[in-house]
Amino acid sequence: MIRLELKPLKTVEDARSMLETAIGLEFGTLPPYLYAMFSIPPGKNVAAANLIKSVLMQEMIHMCLACNIMNALGGTVKLVPPKYPGPLPGDIGPIGKDALVIHLYRLSKEGMKQGMDIEQPETIPNFPVLKAAPGVPATGTIGQFYQRLDDFLATLPPGVWKKGRNQITDNQFFTGQLFAVNDYADAHRAIEEIVSEGEGAKDEPLDFQQELAHYYRFGEVYHDRVLTKIAKPPGYQWGPAKLGVIWKDVFPAIPDPGTHDFSKDSAAARAAQAACNAAYTRMVDALQQAVTGTKGALGNAVRAMFDLRLATQVALRTPLADGVSVAGPAFLYTPIKGGAKA
Fold first, then answer.
1. Can the peptide bond before residue 240 be classed as cis, meaning omega within 30 degrees of 0?
2. Alpha-carbon distances, residue 231 vs 59, 243, 313 (angstroms)
3. Radius of gyration in angstroms for the set of CA atoms belonging to the chain, rounded to a whole number
């Protein structure tokens, strides 16, 4: 599970530091969710692909909203591309346990369990699964982490907020979901949406839009059961209707391609990885520009994501040396020497 240190906040700089962790956390979820989504061939596991995509798009919105809060507090956003496998920013793990190590997994039960671990709410629901086969004071979940931040932001005087500073409000993308943060009311709304969409309302799997929160969307794929409301406690159950997941209907993508030695693979496989890394780098650079005030850069980031998908489709159809496996994108940030860096 994700456990984040809940430090006391006394200054605006403390809040900026917390936001830096939050932004890194939201950014760090994008590659593992993309890897799982990309591993699904066109026309296969459509329901699962749509659920993962919906989570992915909301995570990008969450990252932008966290950046908007940072900018409104006068901070500077610095996107730091993570490496996989590795922990997400701020994850210290429960007392006596290691932090959650995040991997790049194709669509699999392992990958969906990882998604549930990342998005795990404060109270883990014990919903029955209808199928034949079978608190630490100094740390908290992502939701508790954001709540600590929200409580502090509510105490700030109005003069702290810098209206209109580097706000991402590109209405061409995420219309109605991405908005400027100019004061505490806006920041509170942003935090409520981030937490609600990720974990759901307290003791309730639905978010503020009455849609399944992220934890439960991954849960539907993991259990291959539609989450169903029932009249008796605990109020919901997994199934009996199936989502229709066919685990074998995926590209045979290896996990964590960033740790793979491609020198033993074909030139085509190496070229495919290079194209993926180049598109990912363009996406990161465009995101960095967007969160630091460059108008229209968010559109460039979205287009780079589509380029990444196209490059990934080539990589996932290019066999590795074993003649069976393929590799999805390693998500390695590889800026051109002397060029712009994220």
1. yes
2. 32, 21, 44
3. 20
Using CA atoms in the order 291, 90, 107, 177, what is the torsion angle rounded to 10 degrees? -40
Q: Which of 68, 29, 35 is nearest to 49 (CA)?
A: 35
Q: Which amino acid is at 274?
A: A
Q: Give the integer Cα–Cα distance in Å for 93 and 99.
A: 4
- This prediction's pTM: 0.91
Please report the DSSP string for 173-201 in residue order.
SSTTT-----SHHHHHHHHHHHHHHHH-S
Sign of the dihedral defined by the CA atoms of residues 260, 263, 269, 274, in that order: positive
Inter-residue long-range contacts of 97-100, CB under 8 Å, 24+ positions, other chains counted: 99/3, 100/1, 100/2, 100/3
How far, in Å, are 134, 178, 306 from residue 69 at the CA level? Answer: 44, 12, 27
* pLDDT means over runs of 10, the chain (342 residues): 86 97 95 97 97 94 96 97 93 72 97 94 74 52 92 97 91 79 97 85 75 94 96 92 97 98 97 97 95 90 93 98 97 78 43
Question: Is the separation of the CB atoms in 9 and 97 below 8 Å?
Answer: no
